[in-house]
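Good morning,

Attaching, inline, the backbone tokens for the sequence recovery test we're adding to the shared suite. The designed sequence is right after.
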């Protein structure tokens, strides 16, 4: 009898064709549904990988306290992985994040420390995490600088996209937060075909979209390598939210705002390729589920 554990069900998420938001003749658009992971987002992959690799190196052991700054999805995923593997989890997050996210973290047993969005938000959370580590209060996994973040996507997300498109993927579009997803997938897909275009999505200068950022230079994730992204396109918050709602109404894909932003850019890229008459297979990441945003009123 094959015995599965919860971690066996992280990854191998569905890749589905967009049927009504986009109906091109030459360009075909697909969405990878990362909300199907056990804790509900793409962050399940790096969360589990960062803990597993740190354990293997002897950096941490069950019973230790882990600390991480998060805007939500990584925190939920880490709280789940910590509960599964026997760690205490302290999460530091801006005070403007949705209550559903906080409740999910608490359900997994995590301690939550809130910091003021107005006083610094995620940058302040990151600084506090490192201060707590220096004071001996736990170990910071540091998703922003930890190569085990992007390696999770190099080892799983990228190969799954290549496999499920039969190696025909021509464009990969992803919102950028820690940049782990786009860094890992870019590495893998470019090794298979240097012709695959990697498109990053960030908020325009006036938008605040949960999970994706336009980082100040001093806080740019250390794992980010600009050369691995062929194009970076901006999306307005209103466009991301409207596209998110259209995804639910027309495709039955219930997702968060950053996924709406990525889909908006994917639709733009699809229209570009269609206008050129190019055969294209475009894949975008739907990074989480919409149920963790209901209290914010976006739906």
């Amino acid at each position: 009898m094959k015995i599965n554990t919860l971690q066996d069900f992280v990854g191998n998420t569905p890749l589905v064709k967009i049927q009504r938001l986009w109906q091109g003749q030459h360009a075909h658009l697909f969405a990878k549904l990362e909300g199907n992971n056990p804790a509900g987002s793409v962050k399940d992959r790096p969360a589990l990988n960062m803990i597993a690799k740190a354990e293997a190196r002897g950096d941490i052991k069950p019973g230790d306290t882990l600390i991480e700054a998060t805007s939500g999805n990584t925190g939920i995923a880490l709280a789940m992985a910590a509960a599964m593997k026997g760690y205490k989890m302290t999460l530091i997050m801006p005070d403007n994040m949705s209550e559903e996210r906080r409740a999910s973290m608490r359900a997994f047993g995590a301690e939550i420390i809130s910091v003021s969005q107005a006083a610094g938000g995620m940058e302040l959370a990151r600084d506090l995490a490192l201060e707590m580590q220096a004071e001996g209060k736990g170990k910071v996994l540091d998703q922003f600088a930890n190569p085990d973040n992007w390696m999770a996507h190099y080892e799983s997300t990228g190969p799954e996209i290549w496999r499920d498109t039969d190696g025909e993927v021509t464009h990969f579009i992803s919102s950028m937060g820690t940049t782990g997803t786009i860094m890992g997938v870019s590495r893998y897909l470019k090794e298979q075909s240097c012709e695959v275009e990697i498109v990053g999505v960030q908020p325009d200068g006036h938008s605040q979209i949960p999970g994706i950022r336009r980082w100040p230079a001093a806080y740019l994730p250390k794992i980010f390598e600009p050369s691995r992204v062929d194009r970076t396109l901006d999306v307005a918050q209103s466009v991301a939210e409207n596209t998110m709602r259209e995804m639910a109404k027309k495709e039955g894909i219930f997702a968060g705002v950053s996924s709406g932003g990525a889909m908006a850019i994917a639709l733009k890229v699809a229209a570009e390729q269609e206008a050129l008459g190019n055969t294209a297979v475009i894949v975008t990441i739907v990074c989480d589920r919409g149920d963790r945003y209901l209290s914010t009123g976006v739906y």
